[in-house]
Structure formats: C-alpha cells, structure tokens
Amino acid sequence: MKKTLGIVLGGGGITGIAWEIGIINGLISQGIELETADKILGTSAGSFVGAALANGFDMHVYMEKFKDPAAFNEFAKVRPEVANLWIQAFRLGGNDRQTVGRSFGQIIKKYPALTSLEDRLTMVRNRLVTTEWATNLEISMINAATGEIHFFDHHSGISLVEAVAASGAVPGVWPHMHFLAADWIDGGMVSSTNAYHMKGIDIVLVLAPLPQKYGAIPSPAEEVEQLRQQATVELIIPDEKSHSEIGANIYDASNCAEIAQAGYKQGQALAAKIQSLLEN
After folding, report:
1. CB 25 within 8 A of CB 202
2. Does residue 134 surpass a pLDDT of 70?
3. Which of 46, 161, 177, 206 could be cross-linked to 8 through a Cys-Cys bond (beta carbons 3.0 to 4.6 Å apart)?
4. For the chain, what is the largest distance between any 2 Cα atoms, rounded to a whole number of angstroms?
C-alpha cells in the first residue's frame, strides 16, 4: 500500500514565506514532487505557500517574485505593549493551547491592528497566487472567543482569501477576520506549525521557520517527536545561513530575495535525505 505524505508549512511572517518557498524550490530542483501530497497544512505564513503548492502553481515563478522588493513591500513591528500581552498569554495559559488562544483573542479588543482590513485583504490577494481551494489543503486559525484551533478546507464554506487572511491575523499586528458568526485570529499563536494535526499520515515533512519554544506550549521539535511515534517525520528549520538572512523582524520584507535564495540552497542540500525518506 502506498504511504501517505503530509507537508506542514509553519508560520513565520513574510520572511517565513520566502524561506519556505526557497526550501520547496530547492527540493523540486532535485526532482522531488511535493504538490501531490495527501495533505498540505498551512499555518499563517505557511497558508500562502500551501495554497500555491497544493494548487500546482509553478513554485519557481513564485520564488522569482521575491526578486522584486516592490512586489512584497511589507513592513510591520509588534508594539512593545502588544508583545507584553503575548508573553502574558503564554504565562497564564501554560500548556493549555485553548486557554492561550483565548488570551490572544482578547488582545484584538484592546489593541486593534494598525492596518485596515481593506488594506490587509488587498495585501493577501496580491500575495496569493490563486483563490481556488485545493482538495488536499487545510488552513489553521483560532476562534478568538473560545481559543479553539480550527482547520478549514474546501468544504468549510469560506473563501481561500478569508481563510488565509484569518490564519495570518496576528493579534495587534494584522486585523482579525469575521465570518461564520465568529472572529478569527492567527492559527500560529498556539503552535507555529500545528504539526500534531498530521496524525494518521505516514510520512510528514514539517517546515518550521520559527522553531523556538514559547511558554509551555510544545515547540515544533516536541510536536514532531510526539508525531514520530506513529509516522516518519522530518523537521526542517532554518540553517545558519537562512537564520542569518531572516534576521530579527519576520515582518520585514526587505531581504526576502536573499532569504529565498538561502532556503533554496538549504533545500538542495536536504534533497537526498528527503528523497530517501520518501522512498523507504
């Protein structure tokens, strides 16, 4: 029986998009096919990349877009008072994802985004290379009122633009989304990858631009270790060169061309290992 393949594309701002596109292109350049994966899970930044990959978009063309700084002219910073509330959310919520998520949901009432919803949706549409749901794509987001994580797909009754905008709605940075009688925020606030959602898949590739641990919530590495009890899992995080190019602000698009190129070289270097993983 053919083994099932899952690809997890984690959150990490505009720089995370660039790095993930680079990794994927590096793998594809060595003959590794990824778009036909049985499940592609996108969280926040990863939802943009996941939408392109799942729809079979030419990822080399996507990467070429990052050579034009004007194409992704984006810059944002987390306000210190908002960052303090993030820290408080992790401290008070402990290892309970839903409690942490609910605390993040409360931030949108205290600190509205500095960007209008109209401008944000324009940004999302410009960055998306398709508005069509692929049948193997899932996108994560958090119900702001309950803190519960949800995974939406083509059966969920919302547009891909809505789903991607919600998945990347960082509280206090980007505006939240409202649909299905609820407010929705960034799916990466309680897990930068949500890799645990890949239970039941045989082989899982996890791309984590943000591998660090926040509070008591399991880190991507800890989620992967748990997932390895029932699947073959490979965790890919930025190597030294990629990490250096990404820099300190994941919402600064000015260095995306270099980040994508660093990811590309890293992907090429990993290709033999990934190919062996897929063949076993």
Report:
1. no
2. yes
3. 206
4. 53
Q: How far apart are CA 174 and CA 94, in angstroms?
A: 25
- Whole-model pTM: value is 0.95
Return the closest-CA partner of residue 210 out of 14, 7, 5, 6: 14
Cα separation of 178 and 162, whole Å?
Answer: 9
> What is the DSSP pairing of strand 5-9 with strand 149-152?
unpaired
Query: How many CA atoms, within 13 angstroms, populate the side-chain half-sphere of residue 24?
Result: 33
Nearest Cα to Cα of residue 12 among 146, 211, 233, 241: 211
**What is the distance between the alpha carbons of residues 112 and 64, in angstroms, rounded to a whole number?**
34
Full DSSP string of 172-226: TTS--EEETTEEEEETTSS-SS-GGGGTT-SEEEEE-S-----TTSPPHHHHHHH
Indicate the average pLDDT of the chain: 94
Tell me the per-residue pLDDT of 29-68, one tens digit each, with 9 for 90 and over: 999 999 899 999 999 999 999 999 999 999 999 999 877 7
Q: Report which of 107, 108, 99 is spatially closest to residue 215, judged by C-alpha positions.
A: 99
CB 170 within 8 A of CB 44: yes
The tens digit of pLDDT for each residue in 99-133 reads 999 999 999 999 989 899 999 999 999 889 999 99
**Helix 97-110 to helix 80-93 angle, to the nearest 10 degrees?**
150
CA distance 262 to 82: 31
Six-digit token string for 66: 């990052």
Task: Indicate whether 71 pLDDT > 80.
Answer: no
- For the ranges 8-17, 79-88, 192-201, the lowest mean pLDDT is seen at 79-88
What backbone phi and psi angles, to 5 degrees, belong to 65? -60, -30
